[in-house]
Write a structure and sequence with these properties.
A four-stranded antiparallel sheet has the order 5-6-7-8. The protein has a four-stranded antiparallel sheet with strand order 9-10-11-12, with no helix packed on it. It contains two helices and twelve strands, in the order βββααβββββββββ. The protein is mainly beta. The longest helix has 6 residues.
Length: about 170
């Protein structure tokens, strides 16, 4: 993704929809889904996610390595499709084309529309630290594991995406 820093390669993640026979039906850049829509996602300091640290670079004599100087901007570690018919239409988030993404390096979870190609909801900045495995619950809420990087403790949260409220927590 050249939009961030022309000196450092920024890795994008991609979601691909496949037919039952393995044919590719659609391909979406996760960066484009998050950056699109009525309230674009703020990505923050891109260089904070360099996979090669400055110390490692110094050990190599300051030489950049083409395959290692990469920013893993999103580190999307889970995608959950909104496939609960009982919730369909309960809110703008609960539509058949909604995907719930977990972005570890953005400390956020988000709902994107694959049909409209846009961000519908994002939450977690300042609350999550290295989240994993967000999933839809039958009540329309979201369950997410918060690693708690830097806090030295982890937790599981239930979040209501309609109100942004944490409605349940287990530490």
């Amino acid at each position: 993704i050249a939009a961030f820093d022309s000196d450092v390669h920024t890795r994008d993640d991609v979601v691909v929809a496949l037919a039952a026979d393995g044919r590719e039906l659609a391909r979406h850049s996760i960066y484009a889904l998050l950056a699109g829509g009525p309230f674009p996602f703020a990505f923050g300091d891109v260089r904070a996610h360099l996979e090669v640290t400055q110390d490692e670079r110094r050990e190599r004599g300051g030489v950049a390595r083409a395959d290692g100087d990469v920013v893993d901007l999103l580190h999307t570690n889970s995608i959950d499709r909104m496939d609960q018919a009982a919730l369909e239409g309960a809110s703008p988030l609960h539509r058949a084309d909604s995907l719930l993404l977990t972005s570890r390096h953005q400390d956020a979870i988000a709902v994107v529309s694959t049909q409209a190609g846009e961000l519908r909801w994002a939450w977690g900045r300042g609350e999550l630290s290295g989240p994993h495995d967000a999933s839809w619950l039958a009540n329309g809420r979201v369950l997410v594991f918060d690693n708690g990087l830097g806090r030295n403790w982890s937790r599981v949260l239930e979040v209501d995406p309609r109100t942004n409220a944490i409605v349940w927590e287990w530490r």
